[in-house]
Each structure stands twice: as structure tokens, then as C-alpha cells.
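G.,

No rush on this.
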Amino acid sequence: MAMRPPVGLPTMSKRAKRVLIALVTLAVLAILWFQFVSIYVDWLWFGEVGYREVFTTQALSRIAMFLIAGVGAAACVFLALFVAYRSRPVFVPSNEADPLAPYRTIVTARPKLFAFGIAGVVGLISGLSAQSDWTIVQLWLNGGSFGVNDPQFGNDVGFYVFTLPMIQLVLGWLFVIIGVCFVLVAIVQYLFGGIRLSGPGRKVTPAATMQLSLLVAAFVLLKAVQYWFDRYELLFSNRNPTFTGASYTDVNAVLPAKLILMLIALICAIGFIVGAFTRSVKLPAIALGLLVLSSVLIGGVWPLVLQQVVVNPNGINREPEYIQKNINATRAAYNIQDNQINYIDYPGQLSGDPQEIIADQQTVPNARLLDPNVLSPTFTQQQQLRNFYGFPDQLAMDRYTVNGQTQDYVVAVRELNAAGLNDAQKNWINEHMVFTHGDGFVAAPANTVVNGYPDYVVSDLAALQRQQAGGAAPAIPVSQPRTYYGQLVTDYAIVGSDGGAPREYDTDSSRYTYTGTGGVPVGNLFQRAVFATEYGEQNFLFSTEINANSKIMYNRDPIDRVEKAAPFLTADTKAYPAVVDGRIVWIVDAYTTAQNYPYAQNVTLSDATNNSLAARGALSQSSQQVSYIRNSVKATVDAYDGTVTLYAVDEQDPVLKAWEGVFPGLVKPNSDVSQDLRAHFRYPQDLFEVQRSLLVRYHVDDPVDFFQSSGFWRVPNDPTVSDTVQAPQPPYYLQVKLPGADKASFQLTSVLTGFQREFMSAYVSAGSDPDDYGKLTVLRLPTATQTPGPQQVQQLFRTTQEISSLVTLATNQGGSKVIFGNLLTLPVNDGLLYVEPFYIQGATTSTTTSSSFPQLNRVLVWYAGRVGVGTTLTQALTRAAQSAPVQTPITGDGTSLLPDDTGSTTPTTPSTPSATSPPPANEQAALAQMDAAASALDAAKASGDLGQIGAASQKLEDAVRAYLALAGTEIPSASLGPVPTSAGG
């Protein structure tokens, strides 16, 4: 039977080939064009901000890394393939059933193509991977000394931060390249018969044996080198979960094991080299087995046995020496050493008259009643002006001197918020060419309210026009209130005019043309094509509104601009606006970090800076792990022209010095900071949260106590948020007069409670004023004094009858809600004063939109065991002075531990009366019943009888419910005065 000849592959016509080549060429050109556009847009942006050397240095560093790694890897691979191919067996037995024969024929026909092709692919992959490590190389080239030696090996810390990462990088790449070469040589030898899996005679030719043995020898020799440097990595060990650094087991078992394994690896390498020349695989095999067995027994089993048998049962005697090293290194790495913190033993007394502290002219008058994390809706409703303006969800705190008086202000920029445009306003021209900028700076004294609302100081275009017309200047004058750069602008803007009518919206009666230096020219056809590609917007090409003078603004968020201009910095998540020398600027705190500070505790930034604000959606830090951090740079971004300026505020930071070697002249010296700008510097919140997360443990000096967790503190959860949010309380910026200080100063403050306890243990603050900037103060309370912590005080506030009544009313108001503002803690008269604003946000309806944002309704205070509620801080303190002391809840959940008649301690809750009053007949009777119940509650509190207090509380609750059942649709506000009952007066 005749067989049909095989059907060949279809051939392409010349025309089809030309079409295919054209399509491939177009695809390649399109890919290259998109890559060019991405790079070119960055190039233009860096030129706009004047930081083009950052772009060029990064680009050249990446190119150099790509070439070095790519060419080096390709050369090694090519050499290995060349040697393997040249040493292939001369005669390969022919076998029709040999499955490798077709592949062998293909490779033999074009050996150079395969060699260069494989080497090129490996080199390309290696180069692309290596270019991202340019920062490691640059720090190695420019890094210097820390002036501090590690306690184990005596090396300068700079070796671990700058040099060791480079050594690890090189070793890692050599391991990969040797491994790739080994695999490729084995494949070539197998393909050409140098390695056979079956058949008579020798399975591996002498040439293949030599090549593979030498590669394994190089690999093992490299492993010996790695064992030597692995010793230094023990200083970052996390074997003991209590601390970071070499532990007893690491020093006494793992460290000797590394040296022993290094010697064994050297012997094994020699064995492979000898085996390569003797053409024997037995000696290398024995050597390899010895290395594997030794690494398991010496490097794994022995440290495990020592840890379980010696250390775990006797850790209190074995680990303190190494814990002490960790304490010292951690304090140095995070700037929390004893000489950098002022520890003060603070009485935290529980006695005193709240009436006396009303006369305090330093701390109490500055207690802020406006919560910047609550009042964004209020600012928006009262100061938005137009729907396309807006304010961030979290406002900022700063301080200003007005009429000779310095006080805290809640501050914000009235920014452009394109998300607020309505459907009729949404088109390309409006979104990018008409609504381009915000209008003005809005501030409000933090301790002042008018009818429950902020007393605004507005510096905008209207205020500027009044001033230019001869009117009075605002309290915080601004020479250029237009803001083109801010936190809410997420898209680009096209500005500029060719002399025609202004186009940008400025006020209802005026239009404006941008005259600043910000933006990138986009007037010519090439530039328009570039940005049309970048944003996928054809209007760049066809719009006649774009002219020769047009400029495009992009990357307008201040934090993004700082991180892009200085990629070696980690920006704080809380940028804030300030008026400096008459201009609105964004101030951004920036950090230099390192991961290899020996013995310093590892910290994950996102975990250390987690708080209730982040849990509710605020911008959070990255998950970067650090063991060293400094706020070495302060950055400003001009809100009008986008100018980015970097100032070195910690010029001794070794990491910053290294980066200044990479980017010389990028960061201005500390002496260039103007006096007005320095007056608005704040101690950065993220750094403070990192430090307080460590201080809860690292305030302990004795390593034995540290091992036992004795005397540890805890960052309390924020008690003012809902029960579903369990996150640490954020720190607060306040004007505080610390013990021993002559006057109040702007401080970033936080409270710390006992470990697994709710009572106060410490009060931590960081100075922000120029004369005490960066000074940390820790007020340590006696352990015997049970000063209530935030959770307990908040529970007292919530169960205060006046507040519970307001909560009940709001709950039944159909959409209204109560908001507990920031719970502030102030050291006053050797005790602690708690102040909390209480807001009510009414339901939003078609007719009462004015009540749809928070309004200050009450001020809550706790001092010396007394609680007061009032419409003002003074009234709340007065009522606290008139009230009887209240029992502090132990658990913070509404129960308390009180002594019973037998002297034992049992949980108790308010009692429930056995009978209730008859229901009132009308609203007037319900109000009378509420008044009577409130008076009865006051009398019960004065008697101190818990049973009477519980019964009276229940009667008042019943009276409130009865009133609500009849009417009760209005929520009392601060402007209406107090409700019938209060906390003891």
C-alpha cells in the first residue's frame, strides 16, 4: 500500500510577508512610543520642579546596573555554552529511535545563534532585574560611618547599613548565574551525549565531569564565602520573639556553626576541584554529602537542641546580656535614648478642686474644643462656597500668633475638588481648563466656638480684594490665595493663555489666567501628542483652547511630589498647609530609613502607625520594615506654583549624608530655613507613633524586667470611635504647659496605660516649637495611683445622665447622630484633666440641610475623680467642682469593681427599680417627670448610695423614653443652654 507524502507547511506569499513585517514593525514602534512617552513625561516633570539631576542620576544608575549585570550574566552563560559545546563527544551513536536527534540537528546547524540567543535572554532578564537595585549600589558607593560599633563584632554600623547589603546582592547574583550555567551545561552535555542515562560504559564523559564539577566547586566556594557573611546577619535575627538581634543560641550555637560550615564548604570545594581533574565523581559526591549532612546537624539540629534544652528553661539567665544590646541599639536607632528623653516622675494625684484650674492661663484656655478629625463636614458646609471646592476628611492642626497671642488653629485649604462637579459641569474643558484651582486658607481657633461652630479666619480672594480696596487684612494674611496644588486634586490641569480672555474660574464675577512657574509647556504639536498618549485623550490634539502659552500641571499632590522628587525619602502621611511669609505652602515631613541597624528592633511602619484614623480610612504608611529612622528632611510644596524645596533638619544623619553624596545639592542646609517656616514645623506624627510603639517597652532599663515584660506600657485604644473599630488612640497636637516649663508650648501628645490595664502609666509629648523642637518628655505616673485611662473616662462620660439622655434623643431622632470628639489629656496641677468635645449631627432633610453637619453641643471634663458637663469648658469645670466624686470603672465596659459589704470585690452594674412611675398624660407632664427624675438623681449622687443612684438613673431613663413616645423631636444644642439634668450639678 502506497503511503502519502507528508504535507509541508503552507508558504506565505511575498505580499503577506510584507504585511506581516509591517504589522510587527508598527507594533514594535507603538511599544517603543509608549515607553518613550512615559519616560519623557517624567523628564519634563523633573525639569519643571528643578530636580532633573534626580531623573538623570536614577536613569544612569539603572542603565549602569542593567549593563553590568546583563553583560556579566550573558558573558558567563555564553562562555559556559561555548565550552560545553566545544567539549561535546566527537561521535554520537546514531539511533533512529533517539528522541534527541532532531534537536541535536537543529542546534548543530546554528550553534552561534543558540549560544548568543540564550546568553542574550539571560542577560536581558538579569539586567532588568538588577536595575531595580540601584539604591543598594549607590548607598554602597556613597555611604560612610555612623561612628557607632556593633557590640558583637565591633564593626561600624555603616558596614551593616551600606556595605553588607551590597555583598549580599553580589553573592545572590553569583549564585543565580552559577546555577543557570550548571543547568545549561548539563543540558548541552545531555543533548550531545556527554551525559547518558542508559547504555553500556561510562555515563558521564571526562569533559562533562570537569565542567560540572568546577561549577559545583565554584558554587560551594561561594557558599563558604556566604557562611562568613552570614555571621553578621545574626545581628538581625528574630529567633527570640522578645527582641531583634543575636540571642544566646545565635551566638553560642549558630555563630560557631557558620564557621564550621565555612571550613567544610572550603574542603568540599577542594574536593570538587580535585574530582574535576581526576575525572572522578566519588570524591565530589562524598564532599557534597558531608556538606549537606553538616548543614542539617550543625546548622539546624544543634541550635534547636540548645534552644529547647538550655535557653527556654533558663532564658531569664541566658538572654539578658543580649536583651541589653537590643535595648541600647533600639534606643539609638530610633532616637529614644535616655539623654534624648526627659523622664519626669509625675504625681498624677486624684485630689483637687476643678474650680481651681479654671484660673490656669496656660494649658486650660488652650484646650481645643474643635476636633480636626470631625469638623471636615462643618468646614465644607460653611466654607465651601461652591460645589467644586472641598476640604480633606482630616483637617490639620497648627499654631499662629494673632494680636500677640499664640494659640492652636484648625487649618485647611479650600481646595479644588473635581469630584464635586455636577453632571452639567462635567466636560473636558471644565474639568481641566476652567476649574483649575482652589481659593484660600481657612483657619479656626481650636478653643473657640460661636453657637457651636468654628470662629473662622478666612484668607481667600474675597479677603484679598477687601484688603486691596482699603479694608482690614485678615488675621492670617495671604498674598496669593489661589491653590493649584493640594491633596484633593487628582487630575491634570491646563492653564495659560495667548493673550485672549481669561478662562479659569476665579470668582463668580472674575476669570483668571495662571501666571506662575508651575506646569510643563504643552503648546506645540509634539508635546500635545505626548500628553494625548499619556492620558489617552484626543482633545489634546484637536482642542483650539490649547495655545502656544499653555502649560499642563500634573502630579499635584504634595506628598507625591516630594516622594517623586526625592525617591530615597519616606514621606509622612500627614501633610499640612501653612501660611509662610504670606504664601500658602504644604509642609511634608520626610524620613530616611535603614533596615540593617544591628540589634535594633524591627518595626513595620504600617503597624506602628496604625490608629483609629487609619482604621477609618485615613492615609496609612507603607508596610516597609525598618530598624532605623530619622526625620532628617522637611519639605515644602508651594500651593500656587508647586515648587518643591527640601531642607536638611538633621544634618548629622549618616543615611542623609550618603544620599547627599548621590544627589549633591538636592537638599538645602538647615540654615536656609526661614524663621517663619520654622515656626510652623511640627514634630511628625508618624515618627512619634513609631517611637511611642517602642517606648511602651524600651523605657525599661533592666533586661531581666524586659524579659519578664515587667513594667511595660500599652497604647490604649481610641474610646471615642464605635465598638467595631479597635485601634490605638492617635496622638494629638496641643498647647501644653509641661511640669517645670515657664509657658505652654505646642506639643504632640499621647497617653500610655499599663500593660493589659486601663489605668494611666505615662504621658508622652514631643516639642514642636523652635526652642524645644524634638525634645521628648515622659511623665511617669506612680503605679500605686489608679488614675483612670481613656477607656474608663470615656465610659464615665457615656454614662453621665445628661450625655446618655442626649444620645437617646439623637438615636430616636431618625438619622441624627452623636459624635464624641477627641479625648484630650492635659497635665494640670500635678493631676490630669480630660477634655472631650461632644457633637451632634442632625438628620439631613430637604428642609433642614443646615443641621447635617457636626455642631459642638457639650464639653465633657474629668478632673480629680469628678465629671462635669457644660456648654463651655468653664461651665463644665464649674459643674465638675459642684459634683460628687464618681467611681472609676475598672474594665471600661460599663461594669466596675466595687467593695461589697463583706469586703470582697465583685462586679456591679446600676440596679433596676422594681416599679416605674405611671406614664405621663401629655408632653408637659413628661417634661415635669423628667425634671423630677433629674432632681432625684442629683440627690442620689449626693448621698453616695449606689442603689439610690441606680434606681434614680432608671427613672430618668424611663422618663426620657416616655417623653420621646409623646414628642421629643428636637435635640438640645449649645445655643439652647443646658438640658434639665447634668452630672452632679
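When you get to it, here's the other one too:
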Amino acid sequence: MKRQLLGVAAILLSISTYAQDNPLWMRYCAISPDGTTIAFTYKGDIYTVPATGGRASQITTNPAHDTKPIWSPDGKKIAFASDRMGSMDIFEVNKEGGIPKRLTTHSGNETPVAYKDAGHILFLANIMPAAEDAQFPSGQFQQVYEISTEGGRPALFSSMPMEDISINHTGNTLLYQDKKGYEDPWRKHHTSSITRDIWLCSLDGDRTYRKQTVFNGEDRTPVWASDDKSFYYLSEEKGSFNVFKRDIDGNTSKQITHHTKHPVRFLSASSNGTLCYGYDGEIYTVKEGATPQRVQVSIVTDKNDKDLVRQIRRNGATEISLSPDAKEIAFVLRGDVYVTSTEYSTTKQITNTPQQERDIHFSPDGRSIVYASERNGLWQIYQASLAKKEEKQFAYATDIKEEKLTNSEIASFQPQYSPDGKEVAFLENRTTIRVLNLKSKAVRTVMDGNYEYSYSDGDQWYQWSPDSKWILTNYIGIGGWNNKDVALVNASGNGEIHNLTESGYSDGNAKWVLDGKAMIWESDRAGFRSHGSWGAEADIYIMFFDLDAYDRFRMSKEDLALLEDSEKKDKEKSEEKEKADHKKDKKKDSKKEDDKKEVKPLVFDLENSRDRVIRLTVNSSRLGDAVLTPKGDKLYYQAAFESGYDLWEHDLKENKTKIVLKRVGGGALLPDKKGENLFLCSQGGIKKVTVGGGETKPVEFEAFFDYQPYGEREYIFNHVWQQVEDKFYVKDLHGVDWKGYREAYARFLPYINNNYDFQEMLSEMLGELNGSHTGARYYSNGPALSTAALGAFYDETYDGDGLKIKEILAKGPFAVKKTDVTPGCIIEKIDGKPIVKGQDYFPLLEGKAGRKVLLGMYNPATGKR
């Protein structure tokens, strides 16, 4: 494996060196007004290159991501978006480079679309729509703002979304593409009611709007021709995105370019009629009636990223598995498997690959860990074991042996040891439950995949019974694939399956409790229901397979105490009688010890089990995991009633419910064998919670991690491609040459060094499928401080100092905090100092409130509140 990784690294390095003279994945190209220079984004920096080709000049060198350049009308300045302050802000820089000037300060993302004139820039942002805005409130519909190139407070230009704006030479008319609803921006070839159209907006007097295109597919990115009477734009009218031309008063279009297979992107035009656009990761120019010319670009620059970054991580765990003695916890961190001590931070790395490992599970003897790994593009089951008999813990082991347990051509993951340690169950092809005998290596099918449906990895659930003879699992029952039942399946593979729930609603996440005499599970049959979408509330229920266990569970605390005391006395008498009646030799002692270790086969009274169902949670809610204590007296569960999941305790004997821990997240709850402690993975950390006392203690770890950004992106690319190949909802993938597109897009990987570009490349590839809501996503961490929404609309026509309130929203900060702020008033001061027009303030969440003092505002220029 190490040799393979070194080989991949060498190939990537050689391509990266070659990429300086033949760069690919150049994005957001824009030609200067005079047609001599092209600005573009490459590897998160802004470059310029002569329109005729040649050596590119690097305009920005900041480690942040700089993108989407636009030219000033005189061609002397370039505005662009950069996340160097945490979120995307607007910056302006000289065309030769230098220190950029920051123009916007909002904590959301802002991207430039056009220079309104020499002194003002139009940009897109989600800040605050107008009070009159009748659109559905959504972050999908950005407003258009304008900002002076000298800085100051942004002014609302249009509450209605206007994308890819182009302003004519006289500045009184603009073209733009509309946005009617959500769809991934890189989707191709779709026709629907929300595909974009080109509109013309007159800025003289009251604005008037006139639709320019009527094609039922995508029309995008209009740019004015030099005569201001016609425009160029991108359209899929003839198949792939190409450049078309249309008169503003005409009804016919003229096709300018004729590219196939890949879309034309990022159209711009100069005053001399030269068009510039991106195609297949490169830059092209064309004049009407001529043949498109590829711009030869040469980039000579230092490599500012690394192929390998060695790190020590103390946070970032995503799943855990507890060892039988509760002395160790296995966890997954960024796709690698680790084991740490529950008492010390000593941590052992088990796997070290750019591929993903997951679904970890400790063996019953604590000497092995089973997990799934997607190596060579296929999920298979692996096992890591302590190689030396004298070593007892992974955290201190010196030799760990890994072996591959499955060797099939079908995806296999989510492994789980049987309680007797003799077998490993796993999911094959995502829904079929298979069992591997560790001694004979024989594999059998326990439940056929036709009884299940998987729409995403990790949506399946199953669990072995304590006697290793049965499995509880999800099951397509009377409610269909999206309202599953819980089934009891014979692990021998004889086909015996019992539907236990049959509610018609969603039942799942079943767990064995009370030594296998009952199960708890989650169901949404009683709470807020979801008949047409997602979002139902659920409860925890218990079903008893044994009448005695049912009666015992329903006893009061007093009656149970009396029963337990009587049972204890009977047990003591029995043991005394046994000692008096028998003299045991060593052989008998040994036999008795062996008998104690045996787990008696479970016996089920399934005919009456549905009559022995009890709802355990007192309120329906959005649930995480749940654990019932071994005695069945307390239920611990995660529930989200307000902001995020809290850990709750419900005392079933006292009928009392309380919060044990706030904001724990929704990860798995793992109890130790005695039920004295719970372990949970929360917000990247691991916590230990003492049952009863509610004390929490972090389980600290120090994980040595080799971050391989190029290797990770290559793996994710292959993972995404394979997910589509395996799981797209139609087998023919809409007739797309999916294997061909894998090769077409994989060649860009060596030229991408950041997640912004990587997300767009994945979305471009996924967009070839013409599948609704299909694409990749990347969200940066954002700024340290978030701009607050104060619950007020401002008068955008007010041009004086301060902020004029137009409307106050009910239940917003101004309405809740009893202030003198009313519609029509002007907030003039902050901390006793006047708000001066041109200064850019943004509010924080806490502070004073009143007629003359705004709720906690902050001036980024001075760094003061």
C-alpha cells in the first residue's frame, strides 16, 4: 500500500510540475473592456494573461481563495471575491496586482457581478430583502447590492435575484439571468419551470422589465454586444451550452459556437467584439463569424500547497466502538481507524490510507476490530488484530495484523461480530445481510436484499441477539420502503423472518434489551407525523418477547425491591444447599465454569408480543440514539426539542425525566457491560457519562494523522463516481457515458488544490446526469463573528446618516427587547457616537438597545463595539 501511495504521489507531482505550462481547470475568465487581457481564477488565485496567450501574471498570492474577477469600466481595476476574512467578501485590486482593498464586511458570502459605473460595484449577498419582497423567504434568492469602491455601507439595488448582470455602455439598461427556484447551478440539459431566462431591465425612471428568451431549458450569462442593441448569451437550445446572439427586440437566435460534450461557461465580451469563455477547463476567445481560439496559458509560480501534511488531532472523531472491558475505544477520524485508552490519551493508529474506513466494531474478546474500507473503488471487510498474545490492548500494541475478510466484487460494509465471536455479519450490496464464519470462511445469506431498500450509505440497521442466533433488522413491511418495520431474522439463513411491528409508520433502530427478552425501537407512530416529506417526531418503545420480563418491568419500585430481595434470599439458600449436598472436584468445577459461560438460546412468545408494547418516552421529539439500563429502570436518549440534541434520562420507576447533558449531538450511545457508564461521540469528541450521577468526562486522544489532500480528493472523486454507478435511480444513467466522463473529469484532479474548485468539478461531473438536486457541496468555516439579524427592515431610500427603520418584525430583537425603536425612527448613535454615512458597521448579537443606541454594533475599521 505504501508503495502504491508513493507511486500515486510521484505521478501527481510530475503532472503538477507539467501543469505550470499547460494548466487546466482555469475558471471564471473575464476579458478586459479593451479586449487585450483576460483575468481568471486558477488554484484559488487571480491571474491575468494576454488575450492572445502567453505567460500569465499572478495578481493575488494570498493563501485564501480568490475567485470570480470582474473588470472596472476603464480596465484599470479588478474586483473579486475572497474568503481571506473567513467568508467571501468583495475586494478590489490594481490590474498589475498589489494589496487589495476590502469593500464589504458582512459575515455572509458576497460575490461581485458587475461594475455599475467607475465608482460602484454590484454584488450578490443574503443580507436583508426589502419589506415589500413577496418571494418565498430562502437563502437561495440573493439580493443585489451596490457598494462604493471607496467603501461604506452597501445599498440595496434589487431585492429580486439578478444573476450575471451586464450593463450597457450608457449605464441605463442591464441584462441579467433570473432565478426562479432551486436547482444545482451546474446541472445540464434539464427543461423545467425553474430554468433560467434572460431579462432586460431599464434603469431610467421606474424600472421596467422585458423577457428576452423563451427556451424551456437554460439561457444564461448575457453580455452586451458593442452596439447595445444585441447581446450574446449561453444556451442549451441546441444541446450543450454554447454561445448564441440575439437582438433585444428580436425573436430569433444565432449560434456562435458549436462545442459538444462539455458546456461553455463564463462568457464575457470586450468593446472590440472579442468574446471570451471557458470550455473543458481551458480559456477560449472568438469573434462572431470566426473560429474559436484556445488561449495558450503558461503559469510559472512556486508550489504553495503540500502533498502530505503531518498533524496531531485531538478532535474530529465521527464514530466509536467500545471494547468489552471498556478500557479502550476505537474511533474513526477523517476516514482512518484509531484506538485510544478510556483513561489516558494514548492513541494507536490502526489504518493510514487516503481511502475511507468506517463501520468499526470490537470483537467480544477485545483482540480484534472489524471495519469496512473502500480500497480500489470497492467496499470490503477488513479485520485488524493484536499479533502478539502477550499484548492485551491496541493502544499499547507493537504489532497489529490486518487481514481482508471478504474477497468479492460486490460492495460489502457495516460489519458486526456475533456475541460469541465466531462470526461476522455484514451488508452486501447495501441491503443483503450476509454472515461470514471466521473459522471456515463460509459465507451465507441471512436476509435477501429484496426485503430492504437503501437510499444512502448508513441508512440500514441490524443487531445480533445475545445468543448469536437471531438478528433484528429493518424490513420493508406494510408501510413500504419509506415506512419500514422491524423484523426478527433467523441467523442460520433458513429464511425465517418475523415482522414484529407492522405499524404502517417508520419503525427502526431496534436493540436487544433485558438479556434478549425484549427489544426497544424507534417509531414515529405517535408524534408529529410526516405524510408527504421528512421531519416526523418519534418515540422509543419496548416490546417484550417474554411474559415474566413484561410483568417484572411493570412492577413499581417498591414491588420490584421486594421481589429482588426474595430472589436474593432464595439464591443464597440454593447455594448453601448445593454446597452441603455436593463435594465438587476440579473437573466438576471446570465443567460448572463452562456451563456459566454458555448463553442459553432465546425463546420467543411472538404471538403475544404486540400486546406487550409500552411507550417509554414521555414526549415525541426528533430522536438520536437510546439506551435502556440492564435492569430496565432508566432510559437514556438524545432528543432535540430546541437547538440540537440533549441527553435525557427518564426514570421509569419514578416517572421522572431530566436533562443530563446539553447539546451532545446525535451520535451513538454505547453502554459498558454493567450499564454504569455511557460513551458517546459528540461534536468530534468522545465523552464518558456516569449513569445515575450524570457526571461527564472527556475521553481524550492524540491521533497522528497524515493529511494527503491530493490523495483524499482522488479518493472522494472515485467514491462519488462509484456511488452514482451503483445507486442512480435508473440503470442507464439517462444514457450518459458515465465511464467516459470519469476519464474526462479525472484529468483535472492534479490541477485542483482547494475544496472550492473540487466541489465545482464534482458538481460539473454530476451535472452531466441531468438529475434533480444532484451536486457536491462545500462549506467553509466562515468568520469568527456572525452578523446578526435584528428583525427590522430598513428604508433603503434614506440617504442620510444613521439607519431609518421601515418595519419591525414581530418576535424579533427589537420587538422582544422593549425599546423605543419604532417604524420611521432613525437610529443615529452607537455607544453614544454618531453613525456616519459611509462607515460600514455590522451588528453583533448582544449589546444595548434603544431609540438612539443600536443593539451591539461593531465597526470593523476601528475594531470597537
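The mean pLDDT is 89. The domain at 23-161+276-304 is CATH 2.120.10.30 (Neuraminidase).

Enjoy the weekend,
O.
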